[in-house]
Predict the structure of Thioredoxin domain-containing protein.
Amino acid sequence: MNNLLTDNPAALQALMSETIFSTGFSTGQGGGSQQGNTEEVAFDSSSEEFVFQGDKSTGVLFILRYPEFPYFSPQAEEAFVKTIGALQLTPHNVAVVNLANPQNPNEFKRIMEFFKPTKITLLGVEPASLKLPEIAHNSYMRGRVATVFNTFSFEEMFVDVEKKKLFWGEFKNFIGS
């Protein structure tokens, strides 16, 4: 693998069929592991309790966990904008929070108190990581205040067309309800 000329995740994804995970380490000469020269992500900061994009007053919230990007990868952002645009939404009238940002609490109760959402989409975030009951992929759980839709990350949908089809069918119903 020393012949790779890129470490761009989108390019690697296009070239490879298997899922690749990064540990933040690279293999050095001599076979030993050493700390890699990975770029540190410059997450946004805010004086508010959460750092997010968009408008939290609409009640539509997307929760993701992208450690490599402040919000989405460029390819995922394009897919996100197109997806919500098909349902007359824009990045300006929904809220997006990246739980990988160290400033953002990973506590569902605090998320609910701050955003006051009525529709929450978990994009590749396991419900258990927020201490929620198990929710199958592409299904939702109705709570007293909000409905939580659990689905795959855009990266997962890019590599599996069936996941994308399942997502789109349920997501239209979820947002339209």
In short: Residues 19 and 161 are 15 Å apart (CA to CA).
